[in-house]
Amino acid sequence: NVQRSDDGGLTYGRETLISPSPGGQGQIRAMPPELNPAGNGLPVVYYPWSQGPALRLAVSLDEGATWNNCTVSEEAVGDTANKFPIADHDNAGNIYFAITEAGSWDTFVTTVRNAELLNCTGGINGASSVELAHSPYVQVNRDAVDSTAFPWLVASGEPGRVAVTFYGSPMEGAP
Q1: For residue 78, what pLDDT is reported?
Q2: How confident is the model at residue 1 (pLDDT cuts 50, 70, 90)?
Q3: Could you write out the three-class secondary structure of the chain?
Q4: Contact present, 153 and 109 (Cβ < 8 Å)
Q5: Are the CB atoms for 69 and 25 separated by under 8 Å?
Q6: Which percentage of the chain shows pLDDT scores above 70?
Q7: Predicted structure pTM score
């Protein structure tokens, strides 16, 4: 559910259901108007969410007035049962996602290019059956880190530069 304020947070409108049956939601983020692929001069507002094994994205290309849901990956890399999808964008508007897969407990990152947001047309009643083009998942925990939880990332700089962190353990299994 999302509520919108048009007076700097003094009051909020009615609550609107944006994403149906999310297993988990990430933080809400906003891109400046110059990164809006629709070219309408309005900020982009978005947040990642999970639904079973799928990684999804809720997007508003008009400053939160209307919303659409889309699929980033129907299967992700396995079960995203940790329900902690995270996303952030770089200064070109590309969105990076971090998830931890339940089972292997590895943390993975994928990217959706800014122009792909125009394909996010699933409305608010469900996730689009169209899967957004995204980069292959890259496992970010390595060496002696066998189990991870609570990923986080920051991607506010140049395209391709992203910082990822997580809690990690050398022991295998559910953290």
Answers
A1: 60
A2: confident
A3: CECCCCCCCCCCCCCECCCCCCCEECCCEEECHHHCCCCCCCCEEEEEEEECCEEEEEEECCCCCCCEEEEEECCCCCECCCCCCEEEECCCCCEEEEEECECCCCEEEEEECHHHHHHCCCCCCCCCCCECCCCCCEECCCCCCCEEEEEEEECCCCCCCCEEEEEEECCCCCC
A4: yes
A5: no
A6: 93
A7: 0.91
Most confident range (mean pLDDT) of 15-19, 78-82, 125-129 is 15-19
Which pair of tokens denotes residue 134? 């995204």
Q: Under a CB-based contact definition with an 8 Å cutoff, are residues 147 and 175 in contact?
A: yes
| Rg of the chain in Å (alpha carbons) | 16
Q: Which two tokens stand for residue 9?
A: 């947070």
90: its two tokens: 């770089």
- Nearest one of 60, 49, 62, 57 to 23, comparing CA atoms: 49
The C-alpha atoms of residue 109 and residue 118 are separated, in whole angstroms, by 21
Other Cβ atoms closer than 10 A to 159: 16
